[in-house]
Write a structure and sequence with these properties.
The protein is of the alpha+beta class. It has 11 helices and 4 strands, in the order αααααααααβαββαβ. The longest helix has 31 residues. The protein is elongated and about 75 Å long.
Length: 286
Amino acid sequence: MNNLLTNKKYIYKILIIITANLVCSIAFNLFFIPNDLLSGGVGGIAIILNKVFTVPTYISILLINIPLLMLAKNSIDTEFFIMTVISIFTFSICLYFTKNLQNSLQINDILISSILGGAINGIGMGLLFNSKSSQGGFDIIAAIVKKHFNIPLGNVLMGCNLIIIGYGSYLISLRNGAYTIIAMVVAYKIMDKIVSGLNPKKTAMIISKESTTISNEIVKTLNRSATKINGKGAYSDDETDIIYCTLLNTEMGKLKSIVDSIDKDAFFVVQDATEVIGKGFKRHAF
């Protein structure tokens, strides 16, 4: 039974990887390549090679990633390595089978192409991230650099992408480089939404003399747990309970109504939660 569940889990992941790479290849062949827009990572290098030497992007991506994979085999965990290998080959195959899109739909507005291409590419990247995979390239370089030099992944990726955009802007035009940045910003925003979920999480801290009644109502009405923390007022020196709870953004209105109906004088603080892991919330792949 466990083997069956494990197999289903990996089959599901592979299907997501195939779908994600198909989505990314559509962004490349429909929006990026025809409009001389670049992309981050190895994809950006492949587009430059396609522009300068007319080397097909699906071949460049494969050839650049193979030595990087060999170099990083011992620097990344086994599951991520295997899923990345599958993803790299899938991306190259998808780029090949969608290459005719470059001539099928002409979009002459570079701003629309950068926004739509970035959004579609962001969807694909978000799906890949959630399935504990990547398209290789600079993700592999970042993993190696972090292991040996302890430089944050984000700094490495940003530095590599800036080099590509800078060279691409010099080679093609500063205008195209600027639109590439727009496409990348849109892509990362969409990716973040997919990774963190379309319904962001919030944390709330409530200070009230009716803490027991409020916490009971949170459990009863919202089906969410709450933690009561012992506190003391700095000015009054009075003992008080602080209610701490985490919930979805769509549940925040109900929480405010609960608190307001029980104690109109309650002190209420709401903050964004970057990531929530645990009971009642979905656990992401990584």
